[in-house]
Write a structure and sequence with these properties.
It comes from Chlamydomonas chlamydogama. About 50% of the residues lie in helices and about 0% in strands. Helix 1 packs parallel to helix 2 and helix 2 packs across helix 3. The longest helix has 21 residues. The chain has a domain of about 70 residues. It has about 110 residues and is an all-alpha fold. The chain has three helices and no strands.
Length: about 110
């Protein structure tokens, strides 16, 4: 073995999930796809579409980087990243909810 040998992935090769036509899919079908990938199925249909799309991009970017992680490891990284982003969104007050942003009353 040489030092320049490429790193090898343990387990089956990681595949990018196929691109889906979400407008033709029912919510139940999308949930089934997410479950098969080991991804959360909570939220509205658009939340699930966003999650699937983000997962596809995440896997593609990791493969482009030459990651040797397994599908399970990448899925765990993605789910952790999603939870952290959701927590950050909840922790930051929305701009529309700032004090004083409501229209002043006339008082008459």
């Amino acid at each position: 073995a040489t030092l320049s040998a490429p790193a090898r992935r343990l387990g089956p090769p990681v595949e990018v999930p196929p691109k889906l036509v979400f407008t033709l899919m029912k919510e139940r079908e999308l949930k089934t796809k997410l479950q098969a990938l080991g991804l959360p199925t909570d939220g509205k249909k658009q939340d699930m579409v966003d999650r699937y799309t983000a997962y596809r991009r995440f896997i593609q970017s990791k493969l482009d980087e030459g990651s040797t992680a397994t599908t399970g490891q990448l899925r765990a990284q993605f789910n952790t990243q999603q939870r952290q982003q959701a927590a950050a969104r909840r922790a930051v007050p929305r701009l529309t909810e700032q004090p004083g942003s409501a229209a002043p009353s006339s008082g008459l």
